[in-house]
Write a structure and sequence with these properties.
Chain A: It is a peripheral membrane protein. The complex is a heterodimer. By secondary structure, chain A is mostly helical. Chain A has 9 helices and 5 strands, in the order βββββααααααααα. In chain B, helix 2 crosses helix 6 and helix 8 packs antiparallel against helix 9. Chain B starts with a strand and ends with a helix. The chains are: A mainly alpha, B alpha+beta. At the A-B interface, helix 7, helix 8 and helix 9 of A face helix 8, helix 9 and helix 10 of B.
């Protein structure tokens, strides 16, 4: 596949050392190598003025409920990737978007360096994807997202990619299409495919209609951020990164339109029916688990799921309350200003006005903190809730694979019994047919066993990788989040320290 | 639930009014209070050198209604018409923590034991805060009276402090005599009068304009400050839930995250204590301050109403005198009446001016003290937060 285009890297990092003896990558020379880790803090400013007015007349009859599609333009890279020495993981403090009312928001790029090896001088593999501004293109019925891929400028590292840095335009349905393809190729053999961001008919309709208010701006930012995280997770997966669909998605200027991803299309309905069928099947499969590891892991993921959902709910509540706090502080600030105006003692009047100003600044602080609460903490948890669902799905596939194997075994058994019976009759044709069938089934049983062993093996590797990723992910995001809290508190100190002399000046 | 408040605690909490209780001749405090179901019983403790009292030191139990009786009798006393009567303390209101307790009981099934206990702790703290507030506000009422040159000598005040029997008998009589309903009617009539009256004195004209405007503004600010404080408490409560779930996650986790989650859970627990204190400090220094002065301004407005009524009476008496002179009938009575009205009006104006001027001074001093204290506390808590957060970040990064 992609190996043909690749030169074996001069210094090969031996990945086997890392894991618990297991070979993460099926192919030998799978190590993409790069120079020093890059540490860009890309601020792609998003134009959140909202998508331009949509053309209300759809040529495409199928596209009744077309999602907003995002266009990624082929820009020449304007910004250089900053390089840093040392393979330290790139953790850049995220500046949460300021109040969404203002036209320009600082974007949230989440540069993550995929560190394969943690030792000094080790190779690291860096790909940074920034998803920025959605744009409405007149002829098409939807918005396009700008997608900018960057790797470190050495270029030779990821020879799987054609260029060092490039941009493409993609629609939301393209992202869904990508996920759909990856899921169908990899889920059933045990790979944990990151789930795509969710559709939202309500949110999207608002944006399409051209409603430019705070909630639709927030929706756009939320979606942009989710798409970025989705892509980053996908490319961090060493197997998925090499998938031709992924490469095509990241590189080619034009993509065939992914029609089957629409919610209410026939394909969509079919998917829903399949999902329901799967759910029923899952309930009826009772597997003899010979491997305690799987049983243990399944239980662990079950617990993790419950707790993460609970935590997610609490954090969502926190976001809500902090937004409320911001609103109430703003209201108080206005009221205090009026009170200050009404006060006839000059010094007290001034102090009250100053109080009003401080509280106004603080309300903005709370708003920013609420955004950090959301974009860092809440979204992380939401992503992992969905990821765990994918993990559980992979375990289910293993069960199905086992079931298939068992079914063919049972069928083989039956056929053998039937053949034995046929031995005593005088029907050579039927006997031969039975023998042929048995041979075929034996092959199937063997394949079934191989499949089962393969998926079990893959899942073990995947879970191990997933857990490592989870640890890194959580740790880095939590640190960023705590740093945002620190920033807020430090600002508070500044504001109140500025106010104190004013209060003391009252005579 | 009893609460023994120590001196330093009281000193901190008593912030809405300053310069009270320094006169050694009459020292009043509420060292103790009992909460029995809905009723709060305050222990009023007096230390005095005045001969008007039978003993130099004594304590009596009093209920909230007793305070209201005392306030009302003072308001109804003609002689005090020219004084700002300190506002009556509001009824102890445990509605908010009670509601919270109810919700907690309902949600018990969905929480872990630890979470439930923490919420309960938080609830108990809130109960205690309400309790402390109500004690403080009753105490200040008495201290305002004791530090007022004229009011401290009031006979009913002395009875309130000293009478070791139940006051409820006296209270009932008072109610029958004065009738709260009429008092309210009179008040609305006063508001009409005060807006229509032609003011002769610049000082009072200014005061009227100022007080009316300021009252509506401060009322609004009080409400908004209260909402703000409530939001802060909600954020602190969220931290409890987050901390508890992180704890469970840590217990279940077998990866390197285990210790990180544990530290994080710890951090949020500490953070929520700080947030809780930020909320309650804000409430005490800001919301309670605004609320107190809102009521005090109402008392000042009442003074203006009384003076306006006296002015109206005086103008009526003038008209009556003119009529009498025209008819040449009952002139001496009319003259006498007019003189009385004038005297009353002048007395009210003189004492009113004094009272309003000292009121402004009092208000400015109290605002200053509270705003400084609030700013200092905010800084202290924020610094505390930074230390906690930075400590956790360093721990996480070092692993």
């Amino acid at each position: 596949m992609a190996d043909t285009a690749r030169d074996p890297p001069p210094e090969q990092t031996d990945f086997q050392e890392l894991e618990d003896g297991e070979d993460l990558f099926p192919e030998p020379a799978a190590a993409p190598e790069s120079g020093p880790a890059s540490l860009p803090a890309e601020d792609v400013s998003t134009n959140s003025n909202g998508p331009k007015q949509d053309s209300l007349f759809d040529d495409d009859p199928e596209d009744l409920f077309a999602e907003a599609t995002e266009e990624v333009s082929l820009d020449s890279p304007e910004r250089d990737v900053l390089l840093s020495d040392g393979p330290s993981p790139a953790i850049t403090p995220i500046t949460p978007p300021t109040s969404v009312i203002t036209p320009r928001i600082e974007s949230l790029t989440v540069p993550v360096s995929l560190q394969i090896e943690e030792e000094e001088g080790g190779d690291s593999f860096d790909i940074h994807i920034a998803v920025s501004d959605p744009e409405k293109v007149g002829e098409f019925s939807g918005t396009f997202w700008h997608l900018r891929d960057k790797q470190d400028s050495s270029g030779t590292s990821l020879s799987v990619f054609k260029q060092g840095e490039f941009s493409v335009k993609r629609r939301f349905s393209d992202f869904l299409g990508l996920h759909s393809k990856l899921a169908s190729k990899y889920l059933h053999v045990g790979y944990i495919v990151p789930p795509a961001p969710e559709k939202s008919i309500v949110g999207m309709t608002k944006v399409k209609v051209g409603k430019e208010d705070q909630s639709s701006n927030e929706f756009v930012e939320k979606r942009r951020s989710a798409l970025e995280r989705y892509l980053m997770r996908t490319v961090k997966h060493p197997v998925l990164l090499k998938d031709p669909d992924v490469l095509q998605f990241l590189e080619s200027s034009e993509l065939p339109r992914a029609v089957s991803t629409q919610a209410l299309s026939s394909a969509g309905l079919l998917r829903m029916v399949n999902k329901a069928a799967d759910a029923v099947n899952k309930m009826t499969i009772k597997m003899n688990e010979s491997d305690a590891w799987f049983e243990e892991k399944q239980q662990q993921f079950e617990n993790l799921d419950i707790q993460l959902r609970k935590l997610h709910a609490s954090v969502e509540s926190l976001v809500c309350h902090r937004k409320e706090l911001s609103v109430n502080t703003a209201l108080f600030a206005k009221s205090a200003a009026m009170l200050g105006n009404s006060e006839d003692h000059t010094a007290l009047s001034r102090a009250l006005s100053q109080l009003a100003e401080v509280e106004e600044k603080i309300d903005q602080l709370h708003q920013d903190q609420a955004n950090a609460d959301f974009y860092l903490f809440s979204e992380l948890l939401g992503d992992y809730v969905r990821l765990i669902t994918a993990v559980k799905g992979v375990f289910d596939h293993r069960m199905k694979t086992w079931q298939k194997w068992q079914d063919s075994q049972m069928l083989l058994q039956k056929k053998r019994e039937a053949e034995a019976k046929l031995q005593f009759t005088n029907k050579p044709d039927k006997l031969q047919q039975a023998k042929d069938e048995i041979k075929e089934l034996e092959g199937k049983v063997q394949q079934g066993e191989r499949d089962f062993e393969q998926i079990s093996k893959t899942i073990r590797k995947e879970v191990s990788r997933f857990e490592k990723e989870r640890v890194k992910d959580f740790k880095s995001v939590i640190i960023k989040y705590l740093e945002s809290l620190v920033q807020t508190q430090q600002q508070l100190i500044k504001y109140w320290e500025a106010f104190l002399p004013e209060a003391k000046a009252i005579s | 639930m009893t609460s023994a408040l120590d001196e330093s605690d009281k000193e901190k909490t008593r912030s809405v009014s300053v310069d009270l209780n320094n006169d050694a001749s009459l020292l009043i405090d509420i060292p103790d209070a009992l909460c029995e179901r809905d009723k709060v019983k305050f222990t009023v403790h007096t230390k005095t050198t005045l001969s008007a009292f039978q003993k130099p030191e004594f304590s009596v139990p009093r209920q909230h209604e007793d305070f209201i009786w005392l306030h009302d009798t003072l308001v109804e006393t003609e002689d005090y018409a020219g004084l700002i009567i300190p506002p009556a303390p509001p009824k102890p209101d445990f509605e908010s923590p009670r509601e919270k307790m109810h919700k907690l009981g309902e949600g018990e099934a969905t929480m872990t034991k630890e979470e439930y206990n923490k919420m309960k702790q938080e609830l108990e703290a809130e109960y205690l805060a309400v309790f402390k507030k109500t004690v403080q506000v009753h105490e200040i009422f008495l201290q305002r009276l004791s530090s007022h040159a004229i009011l401290s000598k009031d006979r009913n005040f002395q009875i309130f402090l000293e009478y070791d029997q139940d006051l409820s008998v006296r209270r009932k009589n008072a109610k029958e005599m004065f009738g709260g309903f009429f008092k309210n009617m009179v008040k609305t009539a006063d508001e009409v009068i005060i807006s229509g009256i032609k003011e002769v004195d610049d000082f009072f004209e200014q005061e009227k304009t100022f007080l009316l405007d300021y009252y509506s503004k401060i009322k609004d600010s009080t409400a908004k400050a209260e909402k703000m404080t409530r939001s802060h408490k909600n954020v602190a409560d969220d931290y409890i839930h987050i901390s508890a779930t992180l704890n469970t996650l840590s217990a279940d986790d077998s990866t390197a995250l285990k210790k990180h989650l544990d530290k994080l859970s710890d951090l949020f627990e500490k953070l929520r204590k700080v947030e809780g204190r930020v909320a309650s400090d804000q409430e005490l220094k800001l919301t309670e301050l605004l609320r107190y002065y809102m009521r005090d301004i109402q008392a000042a407005k009442d003074l203006l109403y009384r003076r306006a009524r006296a002015l109206a009476d005086y103008e009526h008496s003038n008209k009556a005198l003119d009529k009498a002179r025209l008819k040449s009938k009952d002139v001496p009575q009319a003259e006498e009446h007019q003189q009385q009205c004038l005297q009353k009006f002048d007395k009210l104006s003189e004492s009113g001016k004094r009272e309003l001027t000292s009121f402004k001074g009092r208000r400015v001093v109290a605002f200053r003290k509270n705003l400084i204290e609030m700013a200092e506390l905010e800084i202290k808590h924020a610094k505390n937060n930074v230390t906690l957060l930075q400590g956790c970040i360093d721990l996480l990064k070092s692993n």
